[in-house]
Amino acid sequence: MTTETLDRPATATDADAVADEAAYIQIQQFYARQMQLFDAFDAERWAGTFTPDAVFDLPTLDRPVRGRAELAATVRRNRAQAVRGGEQTRHWIGMLDVRPQADGTMHTRCYALVYVTPRGGEPRVQRVCVMEDVLVRSRGKWRTRCRLVTRDDLA
Amino acid sequence: MTTETLDRPATATDADAVADEAAYIQIQQFYARQMQLFDAFDAERWAGTFTPDAVFDLPTLDRPVRGRAELAATVRRNRAQAVRGGEQTRHWIGMLDVRPQADGTMHTRCYALVYVTPRGGEPRVQRVCVMEDVLVRSRGKWRTRCRLVTRDDLA
Amino acid sequence: MTTETLDRPATATDADAVADEAAYIQIQQFYARQMQLFDAFDAERWAGTFTPDAVFDLPTLDRPVRGRAELAATVRRNRAQAVRGGEQTRHWIGMLDVRPQADGTMHTRCYALVYVTPRGGEPRVQRVCVMEDVLVRSRGKWRTRCRLVTRDDLA
């Protein structure tokens, strides 16, 4: 884990602060589309939902993924694997908590499920994770600047 | 599959368009209630969440279900089956993407899960699906005019 | 079951009434945070999301849990159990239906899933439930005054 490299501010935020209603909806819509692009292996458009300098960290990576080119490459590897494996994967988030920050960013924390369905077979829940993002808004859109995913099975 | 019979417009929509916040909430509320009516086998009220001329297509049907009488009959068959089988089914949607159209309709695309729980037993995820609707608003309510469900195991 | 002790009004509500959009978002945010506090075993802050006189009923309890001290004690028991069992539990709600009442409270009905992940193992869906709350708003916050959870496997 390399969380020390992430630019998540160390300052505590008001435990009771919530996003205003419009922002909360925008962020729900943002994640719905981001997850659908990921599962459709739409590498470039998915990478475009991150900032150019985004950092994506997972406990099983040697080092965080950095920037859109590396992010898109991850999706292309997933696509190749899915074609070989004949499985359909769906990423699903919920229990979305959004905390507005003094600098205008949003810190989100949600649960993330990964469902996998083999062709002709029964689906299964492959992973239960917690996903924490720093979101920034520019030119009318939210984008992920920083993501940390932790897996319940490795906790 | 009989998707050629569905009245989904062939024209491409702006890839970045999102529903306004109020509509997005209304549609979330609409689906929550529609799914609960379906799982409660409330045939008439569930059929009433579709337009009178609605078309519902599933890959495992010989032909799409058309109109409220046929929709309600589907629910009554489900109820009879559930009584025999002693299982409780729950339909759950998520990752809801809503795209407003020039004609005032909304095109939605979301993931749909089916959970089944036998009496006295462990629940399981029976299906992972993608659900695509055309929604129309009339007299203050959203209704489904056209639905296409695809199953990940048959993809 | 002791539902006769719950203060759920017996009067029928308009079958078509829905919460206004702002309230619906607030309640989504409320539940996201409440479930995350529960799964993090944050006993006091979780109990604080209920009214001081709250009643929480489950089919497997001899009698409903009453008040914040009893609610917090439940979380501390869960924590001790989780430490022994080495499992991570996640509570996840969806298909949230919210019905405004004449007295200013909100009656909610949603589905609730419980995912359990053993350390180093595969996750599973442990429970599928229906959760019904009476929510009240005071000092700018929603709180649960009354909760009834029913399990699909015991239905």
From TrEMBL, chains A, B, C:
<dbReference type="InterPro" id="IPR037401">
    <property type="entry name" value="SnoaL-like"/>
</dbReference>
<feature type="domain" description="SnoaL-like">
    <location>
        <begin position="24"/>
        <end position="145"/>
    </location>
</feature>
<dbReference type="Pfam" id="PF13577">
    <property type="entry name" value="SnoaL_4"/>
</dbReference>
<dbReference type="InterPro" id="IPR032710">
    <property type="entry name" value="NTF2-like_dom_sf"/>
</dbReference>
<protein>
    <submittedName>
        <fullName>Hydroxylacyl-CoA dehydrogenase</fullName>
    </submittedName>
</protein>
